[in-house]
């Protein structure tokens, strides 16, 4: 895995106390965001911008209580999160130090030096929630990306995620093996994206339980260029559902980051023949098998005829994803 600038995590705040210090418009937005999660928000300030009274009277979720006074360190006791809108670095440092002394994660708006965590640009299809971060370097870029993602995710997806929470509780019906359960959720994801405009039905659950009869056992062969960005969308979809991956040693490491963490990975050193027996056995056992072939831009693409022929002779279907080069 490549290095991460920050760790993306999601706080469960429903029913918990959250502290906001400051009565400015940025503080208003953070108070509304916290309340939307179901938190009980306390806002400390001597004066409040327009909008706070309306938020306190009709919060989107949870509750908002306006405390018409300055904050004290005792106010942070047993809080789950603390947000500050400080006027200067002195106030920011004092607030951050008090929060940390109380063991409370702290964010000081627009002052990253005093933050334990940051807020990203949010795509809200709750309970489907996405957050996009540039580590504070380019917030406008994050907002632009958010707009693009919002256009790709219909608002109706939230109903499918709500259904998934209910259906997940029926674990015993989803399949006897991890592979069978993963197949159910793969079919679920495809159906949700295809039918996002309508609400899911109980008949959808029944249909998803039925695996395609006589589904061909197959192996996907994917060409990989100098970097992972050259993969096609079809190749990415297949790679993300792989159970077992056989890959050339010189495949760019970033390519494997697209695979599931639990997918088994087997490198193949240069000059070593493909372990055909192992590939065929895995595919016949019901695993989603992918073979990644490194294709150097400066060399002739390696022939796959022997591999393809051997897999087909073993009764397997072979799906190929050739490298698409820019013109």
UniProtKB/TrEMBL annotation:
GO terms for biological process: siroheme biosynthetic process. One of its GO terms (molecular function) is precorrin-2 dehydrogenase activity. NCBIfam families: cysG_Nterm. The keyword Glycoprotein does not apply. Its EC number is 1.3.1.76. Keywords: NAD, Oxidoreductase, Porphyrin biosynthesis. Pathway: Porphyrin-containing compound metabolism; siroheme biosynthesis; sirohydrochlorin from precorrin-2: step 1/1. It catalyses: precorrin-2 + NAD(+) = sirohydrochlorin + NADH + 2 H(+). This is precorrin-2 dehydrogenase. It comes from Hyphomicrobium denitrificans 1NES1. Gene3D superfamilies: Cobalt-precorrin-4 Transmethylase, Domain 1, NAD(P)-binding Rossmann-like Domain, Siroheme synthase, domain 2. Signal peptide: none annotated. InterPro entries: 4pyrrol_Methylase_sf, 4pyrrole_Mease_sub1, Met8-like, NAD(P)-bd_dom_sf, Sirohaem_synthase_N. It is an enzyme of class 1 (oxidoreductase). The keyword Cell inner membrane does not apply.
């Amino acid at each position: 895995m490549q290095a991460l600038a920050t760790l993306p995590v999601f706080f469960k705040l429903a029913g918990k106390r959250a502290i906001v210090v400051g009565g400015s418009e940025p503080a208003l937005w953070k108070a509304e965001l916290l309340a939307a999660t179901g938190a009980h928000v306390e806002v400390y300030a001597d004066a409040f911008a327009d909008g706070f009274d309306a938020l306190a009277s009709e919060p989107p979720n949870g509750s908002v209580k306006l405390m018409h006074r300055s904050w004290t360190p005792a106010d942070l006791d047993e809080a789950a999160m603390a947000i500050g809108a400080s006027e200067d670095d002195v106030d920011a440092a004092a607030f951050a130090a008090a929060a940390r002394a109380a063991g409370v994660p702290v964010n000081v708006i627009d002052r990253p030096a005093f933050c334990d965590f940051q807020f990203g640009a949010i795509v809200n299809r709750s309970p489907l929630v996405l957050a996009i971060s540039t580590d504070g370097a380019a917030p406008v870029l994050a907002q632009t990306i958010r707009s693009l993602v919002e256009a790709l995710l219909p608002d109706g997806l939230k109903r499918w995620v709500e259904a998934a929470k209910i259906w997940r509780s029926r674990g015993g019906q989803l399949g006897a093996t991890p592979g069978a359960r993963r197949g159910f959720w793969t079919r679920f994801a495809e159906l949700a994206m295809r039918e996002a405009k309508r609400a899911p039905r109980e008949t959808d659950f029944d249909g998803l339980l039925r695996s395609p009869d006589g589904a061909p056992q197959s192996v996907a062969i994917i060409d990989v260029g100098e970097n992972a960005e050259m993969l096609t969308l079809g190749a990415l979809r297949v790679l993300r559902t792989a159970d077992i991956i056989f890959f050339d040693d010189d495949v760019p490491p970033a390519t494997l980051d697209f695979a599931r963490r639990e997918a088994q990975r087997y490198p193949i050193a240069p000059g070593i023949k493909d372990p055909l027996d192992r590939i065929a056995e895995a595919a016949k056992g019901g695993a989603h098998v992918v073979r990644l072939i490194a294709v150097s831009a400066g060399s002739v693409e390696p022939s796959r005829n022997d591999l393809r022929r051997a897999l087909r002779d073993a009764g397997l279907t072979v799906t190929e994803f050739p490298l698409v080069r820019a013109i």
